[in-house]
Amino acid sequence: MRNIKLTIEYDGTNYAGWQRQNNAVTIQQKVEEAIRDVTGKVSEVIGSSRTDSGVHAKGFVCNFLTESKIPAEKFKKALNSFLPEDIVILQSEEVEISFHARFNSIGKRYEYTIITGDQRPAIGRNYMYYFYRKLDIENMRSASKYILGTHDFSAFKNAGSSVKTSVRTIKEINIVEDGNMIRFIVMGDGFLYNMVRIIVGTLLEVGTGRFKPEYVVDILKSKDRSKAGKSVPANGLCLKEVFY
Amino acid sequence: MRNIKLTIEYDGTNYAGWQRQNNAVTIQQKVEEAIRDVTGKVSEVIGSSRTDSGVHAKGFVCNFLTESKIPAEKFKKALNSFLPEDIVILQSEEVEISFHARFNSIGKRYEYTIITGDQRPAIGRNYMYYFYRKLDIENMRSASKYILGTHDFSAFKNAGSSVKTSVRTIKEINIVEDGNMIRFIVMGDGFLYNMVRIIVGTLLEVGTGRFKPEYVVDILKSKDRSKAGKSVPANGLCLKEVFY
Fold first, then answer.
1. A23 with A62, same domain?
2. Is A208 found in the same domain as A233?
3. Is residue A110 annotated as involved in ligand binding?
4. C-alpha dihedral over B15, B20, B23, B24, to 10 degrees?
5. What is the least distance, in Å, from the CA of A198 to any CA of chain B?
6. Residue A119: which of B90, B120, B125 has the nearest Cβ?
7. Is residue B112 domain-shared with residue B150, that is, in the same domain?
8. Residue of A91, A123, A240 to mutate for B, most B C-beta atoms under 10 A
9. The domain containing residue B156 runs over which residues?
10. How far apart are CA A95 and CA A157, in angstroms?
11. How far apart, in whole angstroms, are the C-alpha atoms of residue A244 and residue A106?
12. Residue A139 host element (H or E)
C-alpha cells in the first residue's frame, strides 16, 4: 500500500465545496472519480480541510492510499486527463504511510480578494467580492494587529463544525492594495468554520468606520459571534497553501 | 430624440458574441432587453464592433437612440439593475445625434492573455489561453516590430466579414511578462475579422521557433491566410478601449 499526496488548484464556483455530499457535486467526488478512473479501484481521499461552496484553492492538499503501481509523479498527468477543467492537480508525490492531510497540517494561508469602485465587476466576478463603500485601509491594518497571535476565536466562528477548542494562532494578516483590489492575506495554525470570512467581514466594519479598530479586542473577549462582522461571501476566498 | 453612448464591461464566456442572433444568446440582445425594460421602448443598439463568442470586453462602446427623458448618466444604474451579472455598464452619456459607435471609431486597443507553466489553470481559465511550450519573448518582440505600421493584413484575416480594404495601421504592440502570464497589447485604427488572434497566433509560432521573426514580412507580403499562424482561442482576448 502506498500513500499519495496531491496538491490541487480548483475553481470552486460550480461545486458544493470540497467534501462529498449525497445530493450535490463536490471537488472530493470529482477527485475520487478520477482516481478510480486511473487506478481502477475506489480510494477515499482525505482533504486538508473542508472548503465551502464557491471557495477556491491554489494549493489544497489531500492524500489517498492505493495499491496502484503507477509512479507517484505520474498521477498528476493521469488524473488531470480525467478531471474537469476547473480542477487541476499541481503536484503528486509519494509520502509516508502515516501522512494524513488533515491531522498533520500545521498551518494554512488564505487570501481574500475585494474589489472596490463604482460598479460591480463582470470579468473575474467569481474570484472577488464587490464592496462599494469607501474603506480606511490604515484603520483596518490597526484592527488586524489585535487579531494577530493566540486567542479564543469563538466570536469568529459559525456553527457547523464540532471542534475541541476555539483557540487558534494567527501568524500573519497582510492587507495589500492593488489598484481597486484589496487582498487580505491570513496565515494561521488552523481556522474555525468561516473564520477567515468573519475576520474579513469584521475588518470591513472597521474600514467603513462602524467599528473602531480597538473594538476587535472586545469582540475577541466576548466570545460572542453576534458581536463580530458578517461572514463575507465565499467567492472572494482562496486557500493558497497548506503547511506540514 | 437623444443619442446615448454606453461603455460596457462584459465576460463573454456564456455568450455567442456581441451581435444579435436568432438562435443564441448575445450581449447585444441582453443590452437591448435592458433598454426596453428601462425605457419601455425597443431601441436598436449600435456596437463598436462584433466580438466573437467567448471574447471579453472592459471598454466596449455602443450607442442607441431614445425618446426617454431619463438623464443620460442615470442610464448606467438603471440598466445595471436589469443586466445579468456578467454584463456591466461602466458609463452612460449623451452624445451628438450623429455619433455612431462603429463608423466614428478611430481605433481600438485589445489585450490577449496567455498563461504558461506546467499545468493548465483552473482559476481564471476563461480569461487566458494556456500555452505550455517555451516561448522566446525577445524573438516575439522582434517579429512584432514588422507588424507595426500600415500594411495590407489580408494574411491576418479569417473569412467571415466583407470589408472594402484589408489595409490597417497597427500603432502599438507590447508584449508584457507578468509572472507566468504574457500579455499582448495591440492598438490599431481598426481590425479585420480575427486579426488580433491571428497576430498573436503568428507571434507564438515565432516564440516557439517555428517561424523566424523576419518571416512575418513574407507573411504580410503573401496576403495568404494559410501562411500566418493559427487563430488563438477567444477566451484570452479582451477589448480594452475604443477610441473616437
1. yes
2. yes
3. yes
4. 0
5. 23
6. B90
7. yes
8. A123
9. 107-243
10. 32
11. 5
12. helix A137-147
Burial B188-215 (b: 16+ CB within 10 A, else e): bebbbbbbbbbbbbbbbbbbbeebebeb
H helices of chain B, in order, are 27-39, 75-80, 137-147, 195-207, 215-222
B119 has a chain A CB within 8 A of its CB: yes
Task: Return the CATH number at A51.
Answer: 3.30.70.580
**One domain for residues A53 and A169:** no
By the 8 A CB rule, do B126 and B11 touch? Answer: yes
Q: Report the distance separating Cα A70 and Cα A6, nearest Å.
A: 14
pTM (whole model) above 0.90: yes
DSSP conformation class of B82: T
What stretches in chain A show pLDDT beneath 70? none
- Kindly give the pairing relationship between strand B2-10 and strand B87-95: antiparallel
Choosing from B11, B37, B52, B224, the catalytic residue is B52
Helical (H) or strand (E) element with A183: strand A181-188
Region for residue B40 given its phi and psi (left: phi exceeds 0; alpha: psi -120 to 50; beta: otherwise):
left
DSSP state of A193: T
Which chain B residues are Cβ-neighbours of A58 within 8 angstroms?
123
Residue A152 contacts B where some CB pair is shorter than 8 Å: no
Nearest-CB residue to B11 (from A87, A123, A238): A123
Backbone angles phi, psi at A45, to 5 degrees: -100, 135
Q: Write out chain B residues lying below 8 Å of A85, CB-based.
A: 120, 122, 125
If asked whether residues A56 and A139 sit together in one domain, one would say no
Of B51, B74, B95, which marks where a domain is finished? B95
Q: How many CB atoms lie within 10 A of CB B75?
A: 25
Q: Do B123 and A80 touch (CB under 8 A)?
A: no
Any idea what the CATH number is for the domain that residue A133 is in?
Answer: 3.30.70.660
B140-182 per-position pLDDT tens digit? 999 999 999 999 999 999 987 778 899 999 999 999 999 999 9
Q: What is the ipTM of this complex?
A: 0.92
DSSP 8-state symbol, A204: H
Provide the domain count of chain A.
2
For chain B, percent helix, then strand, then coil, each to nearest 5?
A: 30, 30, 40
Q: Are residues A168 and A238 in the same domain?
A: yes
B86/A56 touch (CB, cutoff 8 Å), yes or no? no
Q: Which of B36, B71, B95 is the last residue of a domain?
A: B95
| Spatial distance between the Cα atoms of A108 and A244, rounded to a whole number of angstroms | 9
pLDDT in tens, B214-234: 999 999 999 999 999 999 999
Residue type, B177: E
B125 lies within 8 A of chain A by CB: yes
* Residue A101: inside a domain: no
